[in-house]
Amino acid sequence: MASLWEYANPVKFMKLSGWLLPLSAALAVLCIGAGLGMGFFFTDPDYRQGETIKIIFIHVPAALVAINAWAMMLIASLIWLVRRHHVSALVAKAGAPIGATMTLIGLITGAVWGQPMWGTWWAWDPRLTSFLILFLFYVGYIALWSAIDDADTAADLTSVLCIVGSVFAVLSRYAALFWNQGLHQGASLSVQAGTRVDWAYKGPLYLSMLGFTFLFLALVLAGTRTEIRARRVKALLLRERAAA
Amino acid sequence: MMPDLGNYATEILLAYGLSLGLLGALIAWLWARGRAVKRTLATLESRRSPDTHG
Amino acid sequence: MIALLVRDLKLAFRAGGGFGLGLGFFLILTVLVPLGVGPDASTLGLIAPGILWIGALLASLLSLDRLFALDFEDGSLDLLATSPIPLEAVVAIKALAHWLTTGVPLALAAPVLAILLNLPVAGYGMLVASLALGTPALSMIGAFGAALTVGLKRGGLLLSLLVLPLYVPTLVFGAQAVTRAAAGFDPVTPLLLMSGITAASVALLPFAAAFALRINLR
What we know:
The complex is a heterotrimer. Chain A is mainly α. Helix content of chain A is about 80%, strand content about 0%. Chain A has helices at about 10-40, 55-85, 85-120, 125-145, 150-180, 200-244. In chain A, α2 (about 55-85) packs parallel to α6 (about 200-244), α3 (about 85-120) packs antiparallel against α4 (about 125-145) and α4 (about 125-145) packs antiparallel against α5. By secondary structure, chain B is mostly helical. Chain B is built from 1 helix and no strands. Chain B has one helix at about 10-50. Chain B starts with 8 loop residues before the first helix and ends in a 6-residue tail after the last helix. Chain C is mostly helical. The radius of gyration of chain C is 18 Å and the shape is elongated. The chains are: A mainly alpha, B mainly alpha, C mainly alpha. The interface between A and B is medium-sized, with 35 and 33 residues.
């Protein structure tokens, strides 16, 4: 049985992703199409939230990927620091813009979903606030990668940032919860508080979540392949300059 | 075909529209960057060994 | 190690060393906020804990990019890295120097500025306590950020971008402690949580920062 570590080899990774990427993408299109399609066109309005419940089919999957992308970056960062597999560092790098976009989508859908309930286009609900902070972490991570020239130094420093950032992201989540109960116990309504998702919605929702996961996989594979090629471009340019 | 989205039609369409738009932008950016890097790599590799296929 | 501390303190107190800068900035912010928000005393009193804490955050940022940069540029950091003092201790000492020249003056000056912001009387004690216990975290987290960006030209802006999100838990719990005390509620929970974060940061971040410094010194 081939070990997962084989794919730390860039050549093997390219071969694997060569077929895994299109497969993932196809499954993503299928599941998201079915999930969102069913959800948008064929579900009845919620007795409390009306048609806005339809937003859940994008909001929850996006939020799910937003968190999991960071978790993946954390694991990839640890693998880089311990085992020095460049593919791992590049996987982390590739995951960031995707996670950031998903966080943004989660924020927008979350805010818009809350508008009918709260009457404003934004509310400092603990969950939304935590996602906003997570977005800042993503931006900082991406900025650090861009700021450093040497690839290995960048990989090392961003890995440390990811690890320390993860701890503080979790702390911030609890801080946001604490901050919003504050003196007004229970007055704020989390978007998902009290939303017991009826089984009728679960089908499209799970399908959509699955689809977004395939989409995430496809995009990370695509991004990593580009990063691997970009790394080779840099190496070749360096060699050309040295020869000149 | 379009279901009656009730009072909050704008909100729902806004949410879906912006989300799908952002996803589309992300995919487009990744794809464009991927193509550019692929092309640069092909150019460099053919320069290195013009007698072999890229 | 004491020698290192004394040296860094001396540097901070000397010309443009950042000592007065933090306090000056703190004062300016305290003047700007009412000008921006309006002079209504009750509004100011409500937001005073937050403003003062944010002031502490921003003032802390001011001298961070110089924490390691000067020594990095003239090679002293390389020497310190190879000296018998562990690099982790060097980081801790520099963070300590930063705290002594930024956090402590802020904590002491805060009550005076709180008067300008109409902080309710009940909040003053907790204001000083929370700042005194929370600013070490700001210095330590800041040192970590400085270690990450030490090799970069004009890394100051990136440093702020990286460090400010890390400040969020300390800010939230610290400001909440003051807000609660000012309103007559029990501030112990947020104070303890904030102190926990400080203790953990001071204990663990020197290792992360030293790690980053070694990478940048390669």
